[in-house]
Amino acid sequence: MTTIRLAAAALLAGSALVLSSCSGSSERTAAAADGTLEQTEVSVGVLPLADYAAVYWADEKGFFEKEGLTVKLEPIQGGPIGIQKVASGELDFSIANSISAAIAQSRKTPITTVAHTASLGDGSGILYVKPDSPITSLADINGKTVGVNTTNNIGDVTIANLAADQGVDIEPRYVEVPFPEMLPGVQAESIDVGYAPEPFSSAARGAGMREIADLTTGTNNALPASIFVAGDDFVDANPDTTAAFARAIYAAGADISAHEADFRNWLPGVAKVPAEVAQKMSLPIFVSRMDPAKMQSVADMLGAQGRIPEGFDVTSHLVTLED
């Protein structure tokens, strides 16, 4: 593996962009960085969830402006769509998650993970059933219908990982159900079990549903989850712009962590959650740097589950910032 170091200084002083790329026919090169933004206006695919709130916070609180960036936030349906749009050049950056990105990268989709914005917070992802359901534990979902928003994603992957932790052999029948329809589906018994990240887990608890598994325990605890991606070509051509974007995201995450009460008061206006839910819901763990070892642990988990080739090196598709 070769490492390409791109100096970022002058106006954007503070961090250097480090881009790893695999040797051989897939090796990429990057333009030299000189501290000057290649682009000052960028488009970002977004979804108004707490996990990605740093991008909205950075926009409203001036962190992008401080880096010399003007961002256009473009709503998208989800991370997989964002991956497609940055790979094709329709967007400069987009939300995604570490699982979808690693699967796409293992299949040679030309995307780079440019920032890790949040990890799973305690209690932020659960499985739940109706109060009178005979299902009482993770082992009981074997053969049952389990709703997830999309397969090969955080829901079914963390379920499989927790089952491995507990030594439980399960084969549920996954059904793709949009999050807003998950609770009604469980209530109507069209699915046996619902999967819910926040704020949908708080809504399920509030509706009297019974939690049967906390998917943020075991090796899922603080799992690197929410990320931002860009197309390989964009990163290669815009190293300083990429570094500036990442710095703004990390600065916003650190600021959120330092002002949790303010963040909870602000969140309803972005994520459209009721104010009372925002005050009590489990929050993601906002991070302020890329940790390649933790990102590799996600790829290793996916390899162990047979979703990507074992031994796939995801660190060759990451951007890190060095002081």
**Which H/E pattern describes the elements?**
EEEHHEHEHEEEHEHEHEEHHHHHEHE
Shape: globular
CATH class of the largest domain: Alpha Beta
Uncertain spans: 1-14, 21-31
Q: Specify the helix fraction band.
A: 25-40%
Give the mean pLDDT: 89
Provide tags for this entry.
2 domains; 323 residues; D-Maltodextrin-Binding Protein, domain 2; 23% strand; 6-stranded mixed β-sheet; alpha/beta
Give a verbal description of the structure.
Pfam families: NMT1. InterPro entries: Solute-binding_3/MltF_N, SsuA/THI5. The protein is α/β, with parallel strands linked by helices and 323 residues long. It has 13 helices and 14 strands. The strands form 3 sheets. Strands 4-3-5-12-6-13 form a 6-stranded mixed sheet, sandwiched between helices. Strand 8, helix 5 and strand 9 (173-176) form a beta-alpha-beta unit. The longest helix is centred in the last third of the chain and has 20 residues, at 239-258. The chain starts with a strand and ends with a strand.
Q: Topology, please?
A:
Elements: E1 2-6, E2 16-21, E3 41-46, H1 53-60, H2 63-66, E4 70-75, H3 79-88, E5 93-97, H4 98-106, E6 111-119, E7 125-129, E8 145-148, H5 154-166, E9 173-176, H6 179-187, E10 193-197, H7 200-206, E11 210-214, E12 224-231, H8 232-237, H9 239-258, H10 260-266, H11 268-271, H12 275-280, E13 285-286, H13 292-304, E14 319-322
Parallel strand pairs: 3-4, 3-5, 8-9, 8-10
Antiparallel strand pairs: 1-2, 2-14, 5-12, 6-12, 6-13, 7-10, 7-11
